[in-house]
Amino acid sequence: MPSSSSLAVRELPLFPLPEVVLFPGRPLPLHIFEFRYRIMMNTILESDRRFGVLMWDPVERQPAKVGCCAEIVQYHRLPDDRMKMLTLGQQRFRVLEYVREKPYLVGLVEWIEDSTPQEDLRPLASDVEQLLRDVVRLSAKLMDRDLELPEDIPDLPTELSYWVASNLYGVPKEQQDLLEMLDTLSRLQREAEILTSTRNHLAARTVLKDALDETDFEKPGF
């Protein structure tokens, strides 16, 4: 039975990818070389240019049930029929059932969206953005590099929650959990926890680095 967050149901070509979680509004460059996916993309390019991206679960050996629809915004066909393309995340979906597996996976999906917030999320979103800036500042200090956040960080809480989630590198399972959440508040709260932990870890490393640098500076020369 479709959930209360369901907006519509449709068949959607599906593209499982290992350790890749796409979020609404976020870009995903792809290199299409497998024959079955070349067939899929050629078919999609003749219709609405949309397909579903699902993270492949190596433990369960199957795709996740919740993914994000991608729209092809640019593509370049190579001489051997491989394709390079840029896609953009659209709305999220949940797979209800698989309707075809050959030559590529097709599922019956329902669109899902976050529930309407019952409180003003802007203060929490502002806290999350500040935590992100702290993480970038401390990372830059540790690496002795100039690092800055891009200027186009989303202002709206939901879009910001997707942006932050998409930039959590190396934790695809955590990203998948964030993708599956159905309210912005929970997603932002979890991101605040992750960023706070990261900030505290980086701050401790920065203190240690400063102490070691000071010790090296005070050593007598030979």
Automatic annotation (TrEMBL):
One Pfam family it belongs to: LON_substr_bdg
Single GO MF annotation: peptidase activity
PROSITE patterns the record matches: LON_N
Domain Lon N-terminal: 12-199
Keywords: Hydrolase, Protease
UniProt cross-references to InterPro entries, sorted A to Z: Lon_prtase_N, Lon_prtase_N_sf, PUA-like_sf
Gene Ontology biological process terms in this record: proteolysis
The protein, known as: ATP-dependent protease
